[in-house]
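Continuing the batch. This is chain 6 of the set; chains 1 through 5 are on the previous pages. Same settings as before, nothing changed between runs. Recording input and output for traceability.
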Amino acid sequence: MATGRNKGRAQAGRGQAGRAAAKMFASNDRMNQVILEQLDLRAWQAKPPGGVRTIAAIFTHMHNVRTKWVRLSAPHIEIPIQLNRAHCTQQQARAALAESATCCAEMLAEALGEDAGAGKKFVRDGLAAPWPAGVEMLCYMVAHEAHHRGQVLMLAHQLGFPLPVKVMSGIWNWEKIWKECGLGGGPGGD
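Output for chain 6:
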């Protein structure tokens, strides 16, 4: 049985985990924003060969999926409106992704925070079995977005609008990303 002192330490650790998860998701979104800032406007709605999604469709999908995660997993958090991939501009996507990232960070902070495990669940999709809220949800969310970032970078290149090497390598400069997010020198920095 946990003593009061040990229980307090465990709660403090969970609170720290929630804050760290929120910061990591903010860093994840910063990578998306860097790509959108530098993406040639002509690549946004360019039709890729083979009938695959446009870059606009990929980024709007990322935002719309975020709103679904929050709606299903933390319905008390007000979600932004969904985007229409056919009519969404690059600037609208940037703003919407920033807003949905804030909602996801709030959801993660709560899910992994001090009262973690208090019946909280992560629901990826209405048809998927819910998971207990935990670090797995952060991993799933970031992996989903990293997959789509890779698609965007590949499509931009294939369409003749490759992003500069500085951007491609810049999304891997995590210390710089953390600083740009106001996180100091890393996930534990303030």
